[in-house]
What does this fold into?
Amino acid sequence: MNISDNRAYPQPVVDRDNRTYLEGWKNGSLMLQQCAGCHAMIFYPRPMCPHCWSDSLSWIKASGRGRVVSYSMIHRPNHPSFNDETPIALAEIVLEEGPTLLARVLSQDVKSGMAVELANDPESVARYPLPIFRPRLSE
It folds into this structure.
């Protein structure tokens, strides 16, 4: 298996709610929704605000910066495309904009509270089907 070929990874299913999010990642960006009704920042993509139920949502480009809340090191992945990459750090990340998400962190030295940033270099964007993060070198 050629691990640089992202077709080996499970691929997300594109739908009308997540299309902008997934296209943003293909361009190296992390896209979040913002509610026009209550101004909440929203992740994961959905058709209405979970806070005020407004369907008036717009997309914004997030900073791509956040902090690890908690993490787990995955030693036995559920899909064979990840077997040669273990252990894999899967982290809950709170973004500067407020929402939290689960994402892979490209480091074996993950710590709670660690500053991270979107790994949006061309190689990572081409390889991984969903946004991933790396340790942030400067605060």
User: Anything to note?
Assistant: The chain is about 10% helix and 30% strand. The first helix runs from residue 19 to 26.
